[in-house]
Design a protein that fits this description.
Blueprint: E1 20-24, H1 29-41, E2 46-49, H2 59-65, E3 74-77, H3 80-87, E4 92-95, E5 101-102, E6 113-116, H4 125-128, E7 133-136, H5 148-164
Parallel strand pairs: 1-2, 1-6, 2-3, 4-6, 4-7, 5-7
Helix pairs in contact: 1-2, 1-5
Length: 187
């Protein structure tokens, strides 16, 4: 049987690269684990900045990540200044409720870095004042915010659509069936 992480699986075109996803001071290990899985799926590097609110080697993070850890492009910068040095001239696009531009209609560039705040406080206002490129995810219902991993998925795919077009798709042959047959078969 071939799994989605098997060396037998054909991957996306090598030229395809999703946006760099950066999380500033994440606090919930399951969210970071889910986001890391997304980053592997869309060939995006994951960057963490600042103090992380959990042990990154914790079982909760690994459980959410399961079989993809070896494929994750990962960096951690303890200080935001180090992260800015790493970013260089690349655009840092902050995702915040305070933004006026919609993440769904933003003119992304291929080398953008998408920056997300932590689950309870978002991005600090002092940091936002230094970042001219900001987007929001439109919300109309009676909620304070969306889950961080959901927000990353929405904005990352909006970036991919903007940069690569709406017709981008993988081949179903690249992802063979991974369900098993037997007494516990999934139907």
């Amino acid at each position: 049987m071939t799994s989605n992480t098997s060396t037998e699986r054909h991957g996306p075109t090598p030229a395809f690269s999703g946006p760099t996803v950066a999380l500033h001071r994440p606090q919930i290990p399951q969210n970071t684990g889910n986001i890391s899985r997304l980053c592997v799926a869309i060939n995006s590097p994951l960057v963490l900045t600042g103090k992380i609110g959990f042990d990154f080697s914790s079982s909760a993070v690994k459980r959410a990540g399961l079989d993809h850890w070896e494929h994750l492009q990962f960096r951690h910068f303890h200080r935001f200044k180090e992260f800015c040095t790493f970013a260089g001239k690349r655009r840092i696009v902050a995702v915040t409720k305070a933004a006026r531009a919609s993440a769904l209609d933003f003119d992304y560039q291929g080398d953008d870095i998408l920056l997300f705040g932590n689950e309870t406080m978002g991005l600090p206002p002092a940091l936002l004042r230094r970042l001219p490129h900001q987007v929001q995810i439109p919300m109309w219902g009676e909620v304070r915010s969306l889950n961080l991993s959901n927000s990353v998925a929405v904005v990352a795919y909006a970036h991919i659509r903007s940069v690569y077009g709406a017709d981008l798709a993988h081949s179903a042959a690249d992802f063979p069936r991974t369900y098993f047959r037997g007494k516990n078969e999934i139907r």
